[in-house]
Amino acid sequence: MKVKEFLESFKRFLSATAVERLEDNGRYVFISDLHMGDGGPRDDLAPNRLLVETALGKYYLERGFTLVINGDAEDLNKFRLKVVQSAWKKLYKVFDAYQAQGKLRKIVGNHDLGLLREAEYAYPLIHGLVLERNGKRIFAFHGHQASRFFVKFDYLAEFIVRYLAKPLRIKNSSIATDNRRRFAAERRIYLAARKLGIVAITGHTHRPLFESLSKYDSLRWSVEDLLRDYSLGDTSHRARIAELIGVYRHELERLSRKETRRDLSRSIYGESPLLVPCLFNSGCATGKHGFTALEIEGGTISLVHWSASGKSRPYIEREAIHKDTIEDGAFERYVLKSDNLDQVFARIELLGA
Predict the structure, then answer these.
(1) 309 shares a domain with 296
(2) Which residues constitute the domain of residue 62?
């Protein structure tokens, strides 16, 4: 599929999406790909049950955040809705609490499209959300709209109408396990967001991105910075840097074993040497060592990682710029990356042209 073809579909999708004003004191948390199931061994979220319920039901709710569930909350590809609702009663009560305050935004993804056919579903469903700040736009949507299938049917103009009239057979293999499709979708969204000068916040690929950088690239740049510092440091400082480089190197090698260098590299997004910070991804809630989310608070956007105490990978402990302990130390929230939104948009304007 040509980028131009997706860009036209993306423009129509963006123009049809409701807009909210992002106030200076606005607080939003974006979480995606919960894949709630039956609570059993096939339920991807089950291992993180208490962690997610605590983070959403305690930390974010008590601090007045608006919760944006960016698609694939219920895994209706594998389970019936009533089964999911029965298995996750406590988490649905958390959703109810946000809804009662007018602070729940529930975006549909490809795994929970079936919710559109549920006449008595408890929460309003949307396909995307635009937050506007000082004339700049942040566009949150799940991300499946970048696949060939949904562009072919023009996601909003044709597919949803046909789907509601008569269910279509959708081959929904997980994009999270298909590197080629995952990075193709990211590239299309990146190029479209760059062209339109907006920030895109997605899920779908299960891969956290901050300012268009993957974890691999972020760690690689961190190592480069440490190597420069190493030559200027004294003996004790060099020892600390060497230890940290060892931690990062181990994580980079682990990632490289899982995926090819081309798939890991920023070069997939285009030929330009300048990477424009227009693509963010909240990752997923089903990670083996916790879950990631994106936060917007006070004009700042941050990528955070939540884990049970002592369960995060060593590089997260070293890479984090801030750490909170929650529930008497049972859980930990790490701020991995953070930036001012005005600066993000300034770089988009200056580098994206």
Answers:
(1) yes
(2) 3-213+275-351
